[in-house]
Description:
Elements: E1 11-12, E2 27-28, E3 34-40, E4 43-50, E5 53-63, E6 68-74, E7 80-82, E8 85-88, E9 98-101, H1 125-128, E10 141-142, E11 147-148, E12 178-181, E13 190-193, H2 199-205, E14 211-213, E15 228-230, H3 251-254, H4 258-262, H5 266-269, H6 283-286, H7 291-294, H8 297-300, H9 311-315, E16 318-321, E17 325-328, H10 337-342, H11 349-352, H12 358-369, H13 377-386, H14 395-400, H15 407-414, H16 417-420, H17 426-433, H18 438-446, H19 453-459, H20 469-479, H21 489-504, H22 510-522, H23 526-539, H24 544-556, H25 560-572, H26 578-590, H27 594-607, H28 612-625, H29 628-641
Antiparallel strand pairs: 1-5, 2-3, 3-4, 4-5, 5-6, 6-7, 6-8, 8-9, 10-11, 12-13, 14-15, 16-17
Helix pairs in contact: 15-18, 17-18, 18-20, 20-21, 22-23, 23-24, 24-25, 24-26, 26-27, 27-28, 28-29
Amino acid sequence: MWSQSDHAKAMSEPSSESINADLTQTYADQYNNHFSIKKEQNTFYALLTEQGINRKFKIEKTFGHYPLQQYLVATGNGHLQVLPYSWDARPKEQDGQRWFHINQGVTDKLDTENRYHWQQPLQNWNGMCADCHSSQLQRNFDSDNNLFNSAWKEINVGCLSCHNEHAPNYTASNKPTGTWQRDTTGKVAKWIGEPRNTQTIETCFSCHSLREPLTDGFSAQGHYLDKHSPSLLELPFYYPDGQIKDEVYVYGSFMQSKMAQAGVNCLDCHDKHNMKVKVQGDGLCLSCHSADEYFTNKHNKHQGSTDSTQCVDCHMPETTYMGVDARRDHSFIIPNAPLAHAYQSPDVCLSCHTDKNKQWSINAYKSLFGEVPPRSDSSHTFALARAGKLSEHNKLWLVINDINFPVIKRAATLMLLPQLFTQLTGEQLTPYLNSKEELIRLAATKISSLLTEQDKAKYLGLRLTDPRKAVRVEAVKQLLYNPIPERWHKQFIAAVDEFNIMQDQSLWRAEGLLNQADKWLGGNEPAKAIALYLAAIKRDPYFDGSYINLAELYRQLGKKNLEQSIYAKAINNKIATPAMHFSFGLFFIRQGKLQESVLLLSQAAQADASNSHYRYIYLLSLQKMGYIAKYNIELNKARTDFPKQAIFFSVNSL
């Protein structure tokens, strides 16, 4: 069973059996890029033509198998890079059995001066992908020499990814006893038996989650929050109502669900070795949910049961990643077209009715179901706040304190507070810093930057000895340059070691070096910070954050010429992000060059129209230049886009 699973085929040595691609086919596009794989004796090679340059790389490993297969090549210093030309392993009837460019949804023309080009760090296997495609992998990265010496115990996701090699054999005698049962009158099954532990589901989440590693490699055993620090439904990775948007895997969505609250875990629906669902189609859902209640036209409002009206079509909508990989949302949403549009989140009805529009969907929904209220006041407040449509910010405290609301959503609500409040007191934050819920403690520690220096020293000490490493590391981050009471010195030093190990895990990419630079800057070591910012620029010349932070440091040091030279270097490297345009625009404002600043601020505001700060500063620049007509147009647009933000209503039309 396992041998035919996605886990078994997560990575393989290249062979005629492991390579799915039809080697007689080639890839070509309108940019004159060409790609193919050829076998020479017993070795497979990738033949590439990009930007008029022909290159040949040995295929080191196959990467995945379905619905797409990718290929790894060595580029020196132990770096394995993921080629962008992937094999669509789906059947021909689904437009498969062909080569395609993994970034086809954006552009095929990703030249080497783009940070998403396959030779750049973001396409590096060792750092981005490796720990979830091989068992007990360690990156073993040497930052000084930009060198990987990665190693693993099993090349694929084998036994050691889920089982402790030193543990006794798993037997029926140590298997928790219990089962899901539904009585004759019940709508949904309930767990009857011993309480379920979380070890199984946490083992799955180690890979099936968007998270930051705390250590170099991990084993199957141990608590999830001692190995990883998860994303807490942050925007823009998730939609305002919590639906998945970017490639966030399963943890964040599933932990929002009523199923998770009821104690359901992955192995209730998926086979533990082949990972496939235990029953195909609606039968899986009906093993717990009453057919009389849910397998009816009264419930789904669609005539008959067809492949297009399965439970998952409405409750687990798909999002396609990597061009061909359709993945389902695991929050098990209850569709509500009017609310979806109010929350600026996907309307699942339109995922099937693709020829219809927003108003049709709202009208059809109301015709079928009437006026359906939100699932709860908390869910409504949560989504409105994340969509920027909540004016009564104090309502967020009701969400955070709602013990019936999913813990991860309560934690995500805490994460909104820095956007709405400039300061909190220790008394306000203490109940959450000391919560029995680990994710609440983690979120509260993350936002403790809202505390005064005195309150941090008084209230964060206990988090240095928190049972979970993710919380301890976050506490260090908040206390790093804060006076530490004598009674916490020993605990602080121990937690700092964990913090440093966590930071080391991302040094292979510019973001990691930038974090290290920021740490030294916070410790009033500008020379060390400058060296690390420059190292970050060298490691990833196309990451905007390194330039912006270094330019800002030069500004603080009064080195105007160096500040301008950094912006010029960024522009020369074709970095045209909204943040770069905005920062460079502010530079020109400080130099009194308003014409240049207006152009850059306009580009930032247009490219990131959801950023109210960019929009506001752009408005001020238009006013300063005396562009009255344009100012009034942009002000009216901003008031429409941000109806709850008082700042756009505190200024007058001209």
